[in-house]
Write the structure tokens for this entry.
Amino acid sequence: MINVELLAVLVVAFGVLGFIVVRSIRVIPQGSAAIVERMGSYHRTLTPGTSLVVPFIDKMRDTLDMREQVQPFPPQTVLSSDNQIVSVDVVVSYQVVNPKAATYEIANYFSAMEQVTASALRNVASGKDVDELLDAREEIANQLRLELAESTETWGVQIKRVQLKSIDPPAAIQESRARQRQTQLDNEAAAKAAADRSKAEIAAAEGEKEAAILRAQGEAQAIVLRAEAEARAEGMRAKGHADAIGLVARAIQESNVDHRVLAYQYIQVLPEIAKSGSNKVWVVPPDLAGLGFLKEDDPS
């Protein structure tokens, strides 16, 4: 039969051993780090994974988050160079890169960053008026980032970005800027409308010019075509007259008509020639008076 006292000792021994084992094993999650102190001084930094420490000798401090953090700070009120109170809302992105420095170089790096941000904002605002503060948002953010980075470098904290969520001047200034902006928008809209009208008028003038040129070209071509048609008609008429005269001349030659007969025929057509509006001058043959049939008949 097992001795009860021995069993109790074994139970206690296994319990103590189990406690020691549990205290010796430390599991660090991904993206974290832990500082181990031995006998009150820094010993080493535990990285993600499983690590062993000496129970009752080594002490592990709080685990540090090594991931990038986005931390908004309470709105800071600053006084501009033109004595206006401006509220600035700042957001800082940072990351702990040196767990040892973040633990021992500063008591509370978060609170310290907030104080440095407020001080840097006051320095920046003191040299700018309200309009400059409102228009230089990115410049102010860069200045804050540089000053914070210089201060936090020894704390093991790296400043990634600084953003200004808002810059709120007094209500009267906000209303004035809103009116100015609306006036600017109205002027830009009016200028754009005027430019559009000018373009439309220029386009219309160009169209009228092109149309006038086309009409003039068409009229010129029509005149040329009419002149060519009239010239061809005149040529054809002249050719017809010439052909007719030639035919008459050949007929006279072939028929041996007496000249007195021709003179008589000429006289017959003189009234018709005189009626024509296109004939302004007509000629009487000089020998017409000497024709025998114009003389009075011999009484004998």
User: Anything to note?
Assistant: The first strand starts at residue 25 and ends at 28. Residues 288-300 have pLDDT under 50 and may be disordered. DSSP finds seven helices and nine strands in the chain.
